[in-house]
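Listing 4. Sequential folding, example run.
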Amino acid sequence: MAVVRVSGPRALGVLAALAPGLTPRPRQAHRTVLRDPKDGAVLDDGLALIFPAPGSFTGEDVLELHVHGAPTVIDRLFEALAGLGLRAAGPGEFTRRAFMNGKMDLTAAEGLADLIAADSEAQRAQALSQMGGAWGAVIADWQARLLDALALLEAAIDFVDEDDVPDGISDSVPERLKGVADEMARHLAGERSGEIVRDGLRVAIVGPPNVGKSTLLNALAGRDAAIVSDIPGTTRDIVEVRLDLDGYVVVLADTAGQRATDDPIEREGVRRARAKAAESDLRIFVQDSRTRVGLETDDLARAGDMVFVNKADLGAAGDADSRFDTLFGSALSGVGLEALLGALSARVKMHAGEGGVLITRRRHRDALAAAHSALLRATGSAYPVDLAAEDVRLALQGLARIVGRFDVEQVLDRIFGQFCIGK
């Protein structure tokens, strides 16, 4: 079956043209024969539903046609719709119309996109939460409180001579702003938790040539994702695979072996490997148990990284490095891989946090950071009230960039709604 959706002011008229005489009730499925308005030829025997504005996904009149999914049926139906003056929707256009018509904010629209792309349980749950308005509700609460504070500041600036405006009306503003700023700071302190759930924990497999990095990647992925060879420098570019570990996504990246080389192509591979390792959330340093080289001089290592001592079945494994989580095993035989996967699973859960409303995109984090900085300035010691008002406006603009809406009239509504000014 296929669902063809039509949205816009002519949607209900389209149904009248395709199924003359049908008088459907809103949001109820009606079986009907669909005909080409041009010559009356039968297109299909299907179902029709109407959703009159504003009670639809887009906020416009919407028609849904449930027809058989054969390509020829769809092609003929699209030809008939084009003959009525309709055009194909662009990518995301229905959701965009829903946003423009006030049916959802940008965070909910992004949540819908994340739900469509979700391939893990954690991604699904987080996307549903955002699509349901959880993050938007937090932003809306901050906006309402900041608008109240801004109304007090504006009243103190512009209407100080009015009898209805009491003295010291803005005295409570710093405490109000601090409360919002503190809540923003807690969300910003999440260390990419929501982004890690959405995009996956980025893990770079790093080490010198021929220690088994590509073999380890293939073993964890369960397929031959990377070329394995005894020839040093085989891996030149980044090879990535995605794993689902207990409902969380981990993105593993096999990188070129770290060594000095005169080969310009391999040297570029080493540069890319270092860049990938630096930008990753976690690094797994692979060592050959017989040599244990590669980590001691590697400046890419950070606290919390992991070491996998490979080829441990060949002996001479040595002691664990106390600075890092160190595991021993063999990528070729599979020894120790279950423990490594368990450690990765625990690590991604730690980075993902304990759920709740999380920042899921870099643009959210950047806009929220800008809003937070503005509030910190506004609550500064002996800060002039007019400058404080401007910073509160900047904070509101930062929040508006997240949800996609901010109306200057809201400030006036707050002012004139709280005080009998200009009666």
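-- end of first protein; second protein begins --
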Amino acid sequence: MYLITLDSETDFDGWRKAARALALHQVAPADVTWGVQGQMQDRMPLGLSEAPSLPPIETETTFSVPANFIELARIAILHRDNERFALLYRVLWRLKADHDLLETMADPDVAQAAAMAGSVQRDAQRMRDIVRFREIGREQKAHYAAWFEPEHHIVAFTAPFFARRFADMPWSILTPDICAHWDGHAISFTPGISRTETPAPGRLEETWRRHFQPDRMPTPEAPRTFPRNLQEASILGPLLADAERWTGGRISPRPEVPMKRKTAANDLETLREEAAHCRACHLYKDATQTVFGEGPTSANIMLVGEQPGDKEDLAGHPFVGPAGQMLNRALEEAGVDRKKVYVTNAVKHFKFVPRGKIRLHQKPATPEIRACRQWYEREVSAIQPDLIVAMGATAAQSVFGKITPIGKNRGRLIDLPDGRKALVTVHPSYLLRLPDPKAKMLEYQRFVEDMKIAAGLQKKAARAA
């Protein structure tokens, strides 16, 4: 009996090296016990106190396995099942005699390995979908932290995704297994946080400061690297697709959440929940989250912007970045109470192109505006506003259902087919982009004048009430 002790739960390189040596020495799977450093006492076979050493390989004898098995094993080894090491070695052992074994998805070992890989993929996708960072500190000292409880050992595997997505901000993802950190240059890992210290809602900052203040930061472990696009590997895809057919679709690596298209009532909470799972266009793949509208259901004014920006994408709330501050200032000068206004965007996901550490805003295309228009229409149905203010060309296209020039329609109330009024103006971000100070001041005053039209309607409604 051979006892193989791996360095960690995700030690694929150690498993691969040991599995190759065992197979070359014709050591059958039944004669091998696998475990992880520090966790072997409970799994050590009775009467086995130490593992015999394999003799050195004296020849150049080797063997090959299909490339998709290596990718399958690299992902499946991240599963939390203690038997995964033995299962993968058993498949490897059988591949020596049957090179086409992986094509037999009815085989129990192959199906189980593929199911493990699919489960890992789903957990990694879940992490990408639901991790939300909270800002700790301000300005130059700001750090972003999030809490996540994975089903499998996928934190190091998924961390490069967050490093690419949020390259311009320092962040930490805290989990019970390990904690991942990004400083703008490299990913590092520290020990996990005990489940007994799981941060309650609103206590994440306290947990972060207790464990990770600069003077208490433990020495990071050496960063581990993984193939950047392994979760979408072309070789592994067909194998998982075959496994899905054999198991009734239970192990798809990239599951889609069906989007509900009808609700019993167009209440905002129901709409917000449905929109969070929208897959009507491709923008959800790169955006952090859906940024839905906010405001009172009794609002008689709806402000429609174009799309979330970088800050909104991270925070999950509309108009909280620089454009939002410009909007707040203009509303206040115009006499509009923002607390009584519903604010949303024509497109609910952030569209951008990466430029180094910066994510540059990219204008939504017509198919993306059309795909998202259902949410705007259902928000209108839920709020029943008297006036809809379209800020920017994208918003105007969504409100009117066609391309609508701002210059020709700005500054006047326009009748909509459903009897409501619409007002067209520029987007606040346009004011921020103007390089000439004088032009910026004049355009800002025009924007305030547009908002005064909305203020008049708001005051009129208040008097009527």
